[in-house]
Amino acid sequence: MSALHAVVIGGGMVGAACADALARQGARVTVLEPGPVGGGATAAGMGHLVVMDDSPAQLALTAHSLELWEMLARDLPPQADHRACGTLWVASDDEELAAVEPKRQAYLAAGREATLLDAAELACAEPGLRPGLAGALRVPGDSVVYAPVAAQFLLTRAGATVRPEKVAALIDGGVRLDGGEILHADVVVVANGIGAAALLPELPLRQRKGHLLITERGAPQVNHQLVELGYLKSAHGGDGDSVAFNVQPRPTGQLLVGSSRQFGQPERSIDWPLLRRMLRRAAGFLPALAQTSALRVWTGQRCATPDHLPLVGPHPFLSGVFLATGHEGLGITTALGTAELLSAHLFGTPSALLAHDFTPMRFGRVPEAVHA
Q1: 3-state helix vs strand vs coil in the chain, percent to 5
Q2: Which of 22, 52, 178, 262 is the most buried (most CB within 10 A)?
Q3: DSSP assigned state of 160
Q4: In this predicted structure, what is the pLDDT of residue 364?
Q5: Does a cis peptide bond (omega within 30 degrees of 0) precede residue 242?
Q6: What is 217-253 written as a DSSP string?
Q7: How far is Cα 151 from Cα 240, in angstroms, rounded to an integer?
Q8: Residues 6+ apart with CB under 8 A from 238
Q9: What is the three-class DSSP state of 110?
């Protein structure tokens, strides 16, 4: 009996992880990626592997994915630059610091270490931060990775055939490529981020644009990934344009600086006023940053859902079509958990993540789709 043939649309971190999971179940995998492997949203992100606790489902997915990353890290090539630098969630004032304890308890319940730092301990851990900060939550198990290399590693391990093709439409039993060729498959996995919105417009997906900047060498020394504790509550809580302090140290002596959030702006151009806001906010936490030169600035497009959780599982109406999209800013963190969940839906393999609903049907009635 011939192996199941799976077509994965998208060669980013999520698509590569899904391809690897399918191959480990014996599937023959073809990945369709019109650009470089990991060259889309994967390359536009910070590669921050971080546990988030906005909802029980998000906490379960990110915490378990971090466990899977820790296992994978043993096999990754050095070029993937996986480093367990940990995260410091920085509290600006006593009110933010007082709100840390429920977050810490949630992390502990999920099996992740988290410790509270007071103002003096924070200043010792990160001397470059401005005086007067109240403290921080330290999550030592968080890490960073250069995701395009990790994605290529997983595709190679999977033995996947990677074709530089764009998909024009999903059809019954496969896909139609831009050039008109029909590619038949037993299973099609839609894992191309915001590109899924064009193929499946009935899904509740929308674009979220973000800016990142990398400094020249000789930037202020930072030891952890630094994120302001008000990242979601005060800075990124609504649908309007927003910025937040988020800085990552690079082994080259550079800093990767974020973050910004804009919905419904499909163009890739740089919004200079927003970028200035982002940098002023970062310099407000890390003053020496204002004296550091930028080497490059770029933008990326995320794929978001209404509840900020990904869509993973079977399409409700299209037979043989499975979803792995809508990860917003957590696609790299949750790629491995997503792949495990996809495998559970497809092959009946075990996963504790099945206790949470990541399918599109959680939004109620999804408009019925038809194959092209």
Answers
A1: 35, 25, 40
A2: 22
A3: -
A4: 83
A5: no
A6: SSPPP--SEEEETTIIIIISSSSS-EEEEEEEE-TTS
A7: 32
A8: none
A9: coil
Question: Which pLDDT score is estimated for 196?
Answer: 97
Distance, CA of 242 to CA of 209 (rounded, Å): 11
pLDDT at 371: 74
Q: With contact defined as beta carbons under 8 Å apart, do 88 and 138 qualify?
A: yes
CA-nearest of 212, 244, 211, 242 to 226 is 244
pLDDT at 372: 74
Note the pLDDT tens digit of each residue in 33-59: 999 999 999 999 999 999 999 999 999
Q: Which phi-psi region, left, alpha or beta, contains residue 132 (left: φ > 0; alpha: ψ -120 to 50)?
A: left
CA distance 287 to 208: 28
Residue recorded with tokens 């979601």? 232
Tokens of 249: 């140290």
The whole-number pLDDT of residue 237 equals 61
Cβ–Cβ < 8 Å for 331, 12? yes
**d(C-alpha 199, C-alpha 170), whole Å:** 7
Whole-number Å distance between alpha carbons of 260 and 232: 11
Closest by CA to 44, choosing from 199, 222, 214, 191, is 214
Q: Which DSSP category does 83 fall into?
A: B
Determine if the pTM surpasses 0.90.
yes
CA angle 205, 207, 209 (to 5 degrees): 155
Q: Supply the pLDDT for residue 231.
A: 65
The DSSP element (H or E) to which 334 belongs, if any, is helix 331-347
pLDDT tens for residues 94-116? 999 998 999 999 999 999 999 99
* Average pLDDT of span 222-234: 83
The 10s digit of each residue's pLDDT in 309-345 is 999 999 999 999 999 999 999 999 999 999 999 999 9
Report the C-alpha gap between 207 and 274 in whole angstroms. Answer: 17
Looking from the CA of 109 toward its CB, the CA atoms found within 13 Å total 11
